[in-house]
């Protein structure tokens, strides 16, 4: 399985994601400069966290117009697995691949901490290695992770089981419906504020993030087998 | 009720990194004519009073002490009369 | 524009239209406005062989400011031990460098941004972080961690809350955005910092030996290349500003505030590291204090060459800037490079890809002339070594302050002995100085780069080095109260405590970077404090084999004539050989034995308890014996490496009682302490005696651990046991002093600062 | 040259946490009459053109595509003529 990790000016979790894929899966993973507009040959894309373009204007807004985003949109439309973590989630929303918006945290501060998440759907390409309702420890680090959307969008997300992760403890940012991560209708694009790549070895404080990566590999293999 | 519309802008010689980044993005998007971008704030403060003079005084002090940072920013404001129903209701309750 | 200048007498230079003439400057003593003294002005005239122009006086004034030249502190700083077998670079470059084996080295430095933060806390603190990061990557290192040491007045004041909140937010903004984890630091609140907060930022980086860079210009004809953000009018005279006391007039100097752009710094960082990896650079130096002036002059002086620059080539953000403004601007996120002639395009190619500006602005010349031109005219011609090497040095007068003798008569224990020990526990637990600093560090991304093995909240932070078994432990410490009461003891304690923190995490202390935050050296009492503190620090550095490889001096920390507590801050970095040695303060397992290393004395001068009870401090601080400390640290490190220790926590503010509570809270375990001793209860539980560490060990290892420490001459006492039941019980000589649920104690500890911050703050 | 002044405000239905926090602070400072605070942005975009109609079109698209987020924000703008010297010079060059 080949992973692409686009790097925007200001991305700073790019290498964490690359190391994560290598350490957990040992699969091929490549950094892709934001000016590249071709992602053919990759099976999955990880939009990393950080502060693309300094998070100026709105987090993710300026990155959305980087050339690489066109091919990310194409990859998503082709059904490839795309995951946006933290800033990557914000970019996916700005690009219209995921609904809603991430506003400033309700307490107005940046927040870095471990959070407890509940896995709300384990029948997906990103969560098939988790148990339904399982709680996992994954860190957050963001100033704008307060998920919001209009009531009809929320209903749809709930009805279609698109909410994959909710904050199970205290809501760390004011997110609507405790939402920590959502998937698109097709099930191949995930956006989440918590950082699974920061929870892959015990000394990091948790290894619960590993199974997100192994889930993706599993889904891809099944898909290969089916094809 | 009175509503103050307050504009807070960066002082001229203060760097506006955000403005620079937005300008560069607009260029990348093809808007080469964009010569400059500066980003400031616009605040609406609704006051439950009809005393215009007092309101002006209060708003000025609020701007100086809390709403703007006199080291880096300038402010201007205008005050208008509004009726109750015009006020956005979504923030009326506290956190 | 290249011409060889070998003449030794300065040429007459042009005076700009709106500037005072050299004669005006002399006759009206205008140099005084820039902080240049009459005798210094005379020296400048002597160096030039003529009257200096306005720009030239400006250049001398910043180069000879305390911030750049250390003219008041140099003779004292010579006392620090600065060398050692592992030191690859001592003081004098952007940051010091220490070998950590496998051809790798650690680079670190601490720096103050106190005065800018007093005037504009958010940007002041943010640009402090930006500056220290540049110091580290200009050495060729990849920054891997940030720390910060903060001092503010009492949180009761709305303005202090504003300063605190905004300074922390500024640090968070810069570090989070650039993607370097902020893993540790300290925050102390004391009225002495009310008008003059301290914001010291530390950065730690890692490099391969061959990547080590220097700030030096070499090779006649080689280009000087400017990289990074454009130059604006911000921060002009920041270096001088940093060397003055704060007073009402500081308000007027607000133009000196710089705005940081961490996004551009991230690009600059990546571009510079790429150039280092590609071995493109001969010299690199960051434009920090005194901007283009300081970086270019220091590089030339160090290389024993001259240089010429054309200011028209300098990227400018504002129109109509004068040479004075361009030379003295402290715009952020800029770097100066020297490369071999012919490689200009390679630099440009890298910078372009990162979306960064770059420009060749000058050349290295033969001789020693520092020649600057602007719009076709020569506007500065100075023998460059006179800027760097000939800065004046002042031997100030030192005088023991009257309070010192008076405090010798004070018995701190007498002041607090009647306090109810239980009430004291809760009071200390909820004091802003002791209570949890989560409010601060949860705003910092402390996990980015996925190498943080010990997050904030333990004695030292630990960052692993990917691809190796090694890890780095780091801590900052400095107790201004102790230093005020006795600068020599306080200086020793600052070094010893930071080393102890690092040892508690399983590391061998490697070296020190220090930031000396003091009042005006022109006050004999302050100079005495400075001198004595340096004596104490030096002694401890010798004893613990931790050389000082770099640091920063911040003097004139006063408001309206009132100096702050003398506050040397020590940044310590240690090396952990194997990940399995990493140890934290958290209790691990019910049933583990709790042991206290070191003897406790009645030492309450300058203690948190004394301050809470009396509202001030007096008497003598705890005594630090370097030999005892060294013995303790060596034994503890050996025990950790042998796998005997489950947790280790240094005893500091609040003494034994607080250490017990902190280890329990960190480990989410209960604890039952039942200790018997001759000391009175208050002293036993709250004394801040040094050279003590609380450890926990597996019950089956207890006997072995006890004899291990006894054999090595370290006193050891069994004081308690870790429990399943989530309760903290502290009994002393059979009397229960504290017995409460872990949850309610944790709540008090965690809520103290957030609770105070809920009130409003005002600028 | 033309200068667009753009105001970006949060939609009424969207809670403005910053506005609420500022309102609470103003209350603590003693301004009990403050009934509501909403915080938005004010951008200045200078265009090196004199074609007003084209400028209006461009600015509208910039607002829709980049400057505002339609999920939570509204925008309005006005365009005025300025002479070169009136432009804040501080951001003239690139990054
Ligand atoms: N300004 C700060 N930034 C980051 N971490 C901090 C800061 N202040 C305190 N901390 C963290 O909180 C913990 C407790 O700090 P402190 O009480 O000063 O520890 P100690 O007394 O052991 O030196 C440490 O892990 C420290 O790194
Ligand atoms: Mg400690």
Automatic annotation (TrEMBL), chains B, D:
Location relative to the cell: Cytoplasm
Main location: cytoplasm
GO molecular-function term, one example from the UniProt record: ATP binding
Source species of the chain: Croceifilum oryzae
E.C. no: 6.3.5.3
Keyword Transmembrane helix: no
Oligomer status and interactors: Part of the FGAM synthase complex composed of 1 PurL, 1 PurQ and 2 PurS subunits.
Name of protein: Phosphoribosylformylglycinamidine synthase subunit PurS
Domain of life: Bacteria
Family: Belongs to the PurS family.
Entry function: Part of the phosphoribosylformylglycinamidine synthase complex involved in the purines biosynthetic pathway. Catalyzes the ATP-dependent conversion of formylglycinamide ribonucleotide (FGAR) and glutamine to yield formylglycinamidine ribonucleotide (FGAM) and glutamate. The FGAM synthase complex is composed of three subunits. PurQ produces an ammonia molecule by converting glutamine to glutamate. PurL transfers the ammonia molecule to FGAR to form FGAM in an ATP-dependent manner.
PANTHER family: PHOSPHORIBOSYLFORMYLGLYCINAMIDINE SYNTHASE SUBUNIT PURS (PTHR34696)
Database matches in InterPro entries: PurS, PurS-like_sf
Broad EC category: ligase
Keyword terms of this UniProt record: ATP-binding, Cytoplasm, Ligase, Nucleotide-binding, Purine biosynthesis
From TrEMBL, chain C:
GO biological process terms held by the UniProt record: 'de novo' IMP biosynthetic process
EC number: 6.3.5.3
Name of the protein described by the UniProt record: Phosphoribosylformylglycinamidine synthase subunit PurL
Pfam families in UniProt: AIRS, AIRS_C, FGAR-AT_linker
Ligase keyword on record: yes
Biological function: Part of the phosphoribosylformylglycinamidine synthase complex involved in the purines biosynthetic pathway. Catalyzes the ATP-dependent conversion of formylglycinamide ribonucleotide (FGAR) and glutamine to yield formylglycinamidine ribonucleotide (FGAM) and glutamate. The FGAM synthase complex is composed of three subunits. PurQ produces an ammonia molecule by converting glutamine to glutamate. PurL transfers the ammonia molecule to FGAR to form FGAM in an ATP-dependent manner.
UniProt family annotation: Belongs to the FGAMS family.
Enzyme class: ligase
Main location: cytoplasm
